[in-house]
What we know:
Oligomer: single chain
Order of helices and strands: EHHEHHEHHEH
Strand order of the largest sheet: 2-3-1-4
CATH architecture: 2-Layer Sandwich
Largest sheet: 4 strands, antiparallel
CATH superfamily: Nucleoside diphosphate kinase-like domain
CATH class: Alpha Beta
Number of strands: 4
Shape: globular
Bound molecules: adenosine-3',5'-cyclic-monophosphate
Structural class: alpha+beta
Number of domains: 1
CATH topology: Alpha-Beta Plaits
Amino acid sequence: MTERTLVLIKPDAVARGYVGEILGRIERKGLTISALDLRTAPTDVAATHYAEHEGRPFYPSLLEFITSGPLVAAVLEGPRAIAAFRQLAGGTDPVEKALPGTIRGDFGLEAQHNLVHGSDSVESAEREIGLWFPHLASR
Ligand code: CMP
């Protein structure tokens, strides 16, 4: 079944010059990039995006990091797009969880600076797509 997912190529990945590498992996996997935008996230958008993590010790620094510079927001489409992108990304912690061959496993060292975000469910994807790309919100 075709799904949509919201992906962020985070400020660490943009600053390190990995946008092309990450988009290449997405394209080679066969996912369709249906929206793509470089922008610096306003704090309110970042706070809404990560609302479920409010209260965690890393939440303030996560907001500071995600708003610290340009990121790439994208909508991907394809069969099982949510799981397919999370497979490409690897686990949240680039060392403890992500395997070599994944984006985080190949390029990351820290849980926070983990290069990419991908929606974790259909509900999250629709909420996040509506937040980052309001004109693509599901009705
Ligand atoms: P993401 O998949 O975007 O979802 C929540 C983010 O919080 C996660 O990627 C990391 O960037 C960050 N994060 C999760 N766990 C930790 C942690 N233990 N320490 C710092 N940042 C974290």
